[in-house]
C-alpha cells in the first residue's frame, strides 16, 4: 500500500466515524441537558431514539404506499416529525413518571430502566421483532469523490450537517431564549429560580421533552447508517452515557469533544481490529483518561 | 398589604417559628430585628414559600398565598432578596435581572433599575459570580424589583457589606419606597440601618415577635439589649 492509499483509507474511516459521532453527540446532548437540569439519568433515552427511527420508517412506508411521487421529499419532514413525536412521548413520560421521582435518583434509574424494557416490548408488538429499514431518498445515497480513491458517503455528510444544526440550535436556545434562561437559572439554584418567578417544574417537563426530542433526531440520523429494531436504541445507550461522563456532565463543549473522540477511536480502531476489540480499546482509553481526570475532559470553571 | 397570621414553621420535629403575626401596610417599611438563630431567615423563607407552613396564613393584598409555590407568590406580588444574596453566579448581570421578568409583558430591564443601580449597567455583561458583595446585593434587589412587587422582602441585606455601601443600600430602599409606594419588610441586626429605613420595628426572639414600636417611639438602648449576646 502506498502512503496515498493509507491516507485515503484513514480519511474515509474518519468520515465513517462522523456518522457515529453524530448519533452519539445527539444522544449525549439530550442526556446531558436532562441530567443537568434535573439530575435524572434517563435509562430509556435509547428508546426515544428508537421512536425517532421508527418514525422515519413509518413515514417512508406511508409515503411509498400513498404518495410514491414524494419519496425524494419525505425525509426532512420525517426528521421534524421524529423530533416532535419523541418530544410528545418525553412530555408524557415526565408527567406520568419522572416528576413523582425527583430527589429519588435510584428509583428514577429503576423506573426509567423498566420503562425502557416496556417500550422495547411495545416496539416488538407494533413493528415486529425483525429489523426494518426505511427507503432512503436517492439523493442520500452514493458518495462524493473529491479525488481519486477517496469516497465520502453523502449520508454521512447529511447527518453531520443535521447534527451541527441541532447542536447549534440547542446551544443558541440555551443562551438566547427564555427557556434557556430558565434552565440555566434552575441549574444554578433551583429554590432561588422558583423564588424569582420561574415555574421550575414546567421547565423540567419542557427540558425533559426537548432532550427526548433530540434523541428522536438521533434515531432519524441512525436510520441512515443502520437498520432499526426494537433494541436499536439500547445498543447506543451505554456509549451515550460514556460520552456524557467522559465529557464532564456539566459541559456541552465536553460532550461534543468526547463524542468526537469516542466515535473516531472506535471507527479507526475497527478498521485495524475486530469490532469488539475496538470497543475494548476505546473503553480502556476512556477509563485511563477518567482515572487521570475524574471530572471529565471539561469541568466547569465558574465559581459556585 | 402583607398580612401574616399565626405562622408556625418546623424543621422536621423541631418547631422554629411559634406563631408569628404582623401586618405591614402599603408604603411602609417594617424591620424585623434579631440576633443570629432567632428565626429571621426561617420567617422570610416561609413568606416566599421555600419552607412550607405548619399552620397559619399569609395574605398579600387580600390574596391568600399560604399554599402557593414560590413562583406563584411572585406572580401575586411578593419578591425576595435572600440572605447571602444568592444571585445566579453563572449568569451575567443582565441575565440575572431577566430571570425576574418572567411575568413582565416586555422582557426588557426597565431604565429605572439601572438609574437606581448605575453600577449594574456598567457590569451588565459580567458574570454575577464575579461581582463584589455590595454589587451582588444591588443585583439581588434589582432582580426582585423587576417582578414589580407589592411586598419586597430583604433578609439581612447589610450582612458582610462595607459600611459605605450599607448607606447606599439604605438610600436605595428609601428611594424605592418613594417611587413605588410598596411594602418593604427587612430583617436586620444592624440597628442604625433599620432606623434609617424602617417606619416600624419588631424584635424576634426564639421564633416569636417580642417587641413592636414605631420609629419615633423606639428606645434604641432597649432594642440594643435584644441584639447583644
Ligand atoms: N435547615 C435547618 N434545619 C434545622 N434547623 C434549622 C435549619 N435552619 C435553621 N434552623 C434553626 O432554626 C432557628 C432559626 O434559624 P434562622 O431562621 O436561620 O435564624 P436567623 O436567620 O435569625 O439567624 C435556629 O435555631 C436554627 O438552628
Ligand atoms: Mg438568617
Could you explain the architecture of this structure?
The complex is a heterodimer of chains A (304) and B (229). By secondary structure, chain A is mainly α. Chain A is built from eleven helices and two strands, in the order H-H-H-H-E-E-H-H-H-H-H-H-H. In chain A, helix 1 (3-38) packs parallel to helix 5, helix 5 packs across helix 6 (178-188) and helix 9 (232-247) packs across helix 10 (252-272). Chain A is globular and about 65 Å long. The model of chain A is unreliable at 300-304 (pLDDT under 50). Chain B is an alpha/beta fold and 229 residues long. Chain B has helices at 40-48, 70-76, 93-99, 111-116, 118-122, 133-145, 163-180, 191-197, 220-227; strands at residues 2-11, 14-24, 29-33, 55-60, 63-64, 78-81, 151-155, 183-188, 200-205, 208-214. In chain B, strands 6-7-8-3-9-10 form a six-stranded mixed β-sheet, sandwiched between helices. A four-stranded antiparallel β-sheet of chain B has the order 2-1-4-5, covered by helices on one side. In chain B, a hairpin with a 2-residue loop joins strand 1 and strand 2 (14-24). The two termini of chain B are 33 Å apart. The chains are: A mainly alpha (304), B alpha/beta (229). Chains A and B meet through helix 6 and helix 7 of A and helix 2 and helix 3 of B. The complex binds adenosine-5'-diphosphate and magnesium ion. Residues 40-41, 83, 156 of chain B line the site of magnesium ion (MG).
Beta-strand portion of chain A reads: under 5%
What is the succession of H and E elements of chain B?
Answer: EEEHEEHEHHHHEHEHEEH
Based on secondary structure, the structural category of chain A is mainly alpha
SSE pattern of chain A, N- to C-terminal: HHHHEEHHHHHHH
> Which stretches of chain B are low in confidence, meaning pLDDT under 50 for 5 or more residues running?
none
How many beta-strand runs of chain A?
Answer: 2
Instruction: Catalogue the ligands.
Output: adenosine-5'-diphosphate, magnesium ion
Query: How helix-rich are the residues of chain A, as a percent range?
Result: over 70%
Share in β-strands of chain B: 25-35%
Helix content of chain B: 25-40%
The shape of chain A, in one word, is globular
- As laid out across the biggest beta sheet of chain B, the strand order is 6-7-8-3-9-10
**Overall geometry of chain B:** globular
Based on CA atoms alone, the radius of gyration of chain B comes out at: 17 Å
By DSSP (H or I, 4+ residues per run), the number of helices of chain B equals: 9
Taking the alpha carbons of the first and last residues of chain A, their distance comes to 55 Å
Largest sheet of chain A: 2 strands, antiparallel
Global Rg of chain A: 20 Å
Most extensive interface, residues per chain?
A: A-B, 23 and 28 residues
What's the total count of β strands of chain B?
10
Low-confidence stretches of chain A: 300-304
